[in-house]
Design a protein that fits this description.
The strands form two sheets. Strands 2, 4, 5, 6, 9, 10 and 11 form a seven-stranded mixed β-sheet that branches. The chain has a four-stranded antiparallel β-sheet with strand order 1-3-8-7, with no helix packed on it. The chain starts with a strand and ends with a strand. Helix content is about 0%, strand content about 50%. It is globular and about 40 Å long. The chain contains no helices and eleven strands. It is an all-beta fold and about 120 residues long. A hairpin with a 6-residue loop joins strand 5 and strand 6.
């Protein structure tokens, strides 16, 4: 099974940037589709971005498109989320997730593997 560990969260001012990392225990990260979700206090878990296991195509939530970029480095078993032009509404715990499926999916229940989350706080 795959274990995921997120890092890179922190406190930033509005308009600033952060780069999140998710390191997988597996040496075959290329066989997994990867995604980022986030959850703010009192709210449901929300899709942020995903990158497929095969073509590497990406998909983003409308709220982050143009500001966030998901990428992966299979040699380092790592997926990244570059976050620019951060807004206070981006404040949440960000979770990394993995699926063995080749399909593009934005549903949390399609991802059997999850990290512990990393806190991102954006001040106004």
């Amino acid at each position: 099974q795959v274990q995921l560990v997120e890092s890179g969260g922190g406190l930033v001012q509005a308009g600033g940037s952060l780069r999140l990392s998710c390191v997988a225990s597996s040496s075959t990260l290329s066989t997994y589709g990867m995604a980022w979700f986030r959850q703010a206090p009192g709210k449901d878990r929300e899709f942020v971005a995903t990158i497929t296991r095969n073509s590497g195509s990406t998909s983003y939530a409308a709220s982050v498109k143009g500001r966030f970029t998901i990428s992966r480095d299979n040699d380092k078993n790592t997926v990244y989320l570059q976050m620019n032009l951060l807004k206070p509404e981006d404040t949440a715990v960000y979770y990394c997730a993995a699926t063995a499926s080749w399909i593009i999916t934005t549903k949390p229940y399609d991802y059997p593997y999850w990290g512990q989350g990393t806190q991102v706080t954006v001040s106004s």
